Amino acid sequence: MKLLVTTSLLAFCVCMFQVQADEVCDSQALYEKLDAENPGDTSRCDIQIKDPKIEDCPLPKTFSGGERPASHVVLLIDASGSMAGKLGGKSKMSIAKRESLRFLGALQKDVPVGMIVYGHKGNNTKSGKAESCSSVEWVHKLGAGMHTLKKSIKSLKPVGYTPMGDALDYTLDELKKVRKSKKNKESVPIVYLLSDGKETCGGDPVASAKALHESGVRAVVNVIGFDVGKETRQQLEAISEAGGGKYFPAKDAKALRKQLNAAHDTEMSLLHYERCLFSNLSHTVGVHNNALLDAIKCQTREITKPFSALQKTLKAMVADGTISKECASKTKSLAYQQQVKDGRWLLEKNKEIRAHQEKALENMKKGSIWKGL
Predict the structure, then answer these.
(1) Which of 70, 132, 192, 258 could form a disulfide with 122 if both were Cys (CB 3.0 to 4.6 A apart)?
(2) How do beta strands 188-195 and 220-226 pair?
């Protein structure tokens, strides 16, 4: 009986103490007191928004049409019977194979390269025309190792007709299968058509080149005329024009190497230009992201952590009976309202940082040859 009275008396005293605590709880005063013990002040946040150091990107050399970097480079090689003709004691086909290997080998470390051959089956008589005109295929698929190209190209012989239209149609169908990053809006497939003759299989290579250029693939078709006459040159020029590219004459082996070297230099300079722009873009975005990260860290130090410390103190005060849960809740609510108000600082700072970034990106865009894309 005595124990029961004592326990009840203790409970009554605790209850009376909490009632008295609630009566004297001034949540505003308590909040101000606790806030002073764990002060936070965003004015101490000295966020530096640095101007990015932009590298001067040398303009690329002009050679191929479109003047865009290559996402892929595809070389179309004519293996029709006329390529068996001699130049300087060597067949045009052997010269073309040798120079093609040099050209693709020099590019493959930096951009995916491929090679398509046409007119390499059947023969250049009526009996072999059907097979020859349907002979278009990869001898080196995009991304394959150079050893496979050397092995495949070695067996090629100039034997058939010239299905240029079908070769360009085949290229379009194959390039449609190639995946390309949606973020990469500048680069396009670059096609180099190497031929010494005109269409002989009834196709329309001009229309095919136009379709390849104007389709979703957006390829640029350049043509290298290897030891061609006036009539053939006219058709090859029309193909390059329809394909958004350019025509380049090569009367002999030396000229062919010169044209392919120029093509290589152009593709590399375009690629380096693109990489330079991307580096500038990455640096610009990085500088501003770092400023935002500094702002977030400062907000955490000056706003988030003091609020967490205040919550912890209120919890301890409730636990030891200094204040009631209701008093703690009111004080916490005041602190939260102030935290939300202080948190607007980060939103405004973010706007300032992004506005600075947009200005820097706009300046970059003005200097880019692809600003209109």
Answers:
(1) 132
(2) parallel
Is 295 found in the same domain as 221? no
Q: What is the CATH number of the domain that holds 98?
A: 3.40.50.410
218 and 243 Cβ atoms separated by less than 8 Å: no
* Domain region containing 153: 70-251
Q: Which residues pair with 51 in a beta bridge?
A: none
Cα 88 to Cα 226: distance, rounded to the nearest angstrom: 13
Tens digit of each residue's pLDDT (9 = 90 or more) over 331-348: 999 999 998 998 899 999
Domain count, the chain: 2
Residue 248 exposed, middle or buried by CB count within 10 Å (0-12, 13-18, 19+): buried
Residue 160 bridge partners (DSSP) = 80
Q: Give the per-residue pLDDT at 14.
A: 39
The residue with greater pLDDT, 68 or 162, is: 162
- For residue 144, is it left (φ>0), alpha (ψ between -120 and 50) or beta? beta
Residue 1's pLDDT band (boundaries 50, 70, 90)? very low
Residue with tokens 């044209």: 259
What is the model's pTM? Answer: 0.68
Do the Cβ atoms of 34 and 143 come closer than 8 Å?
A: no
192 and 247 in one domain? yes
Determine the distance from the C-alpha atom of residue 261 to the mean position of all C-alpha atoms in its chain, rounded to a whole number.
Answer: 27
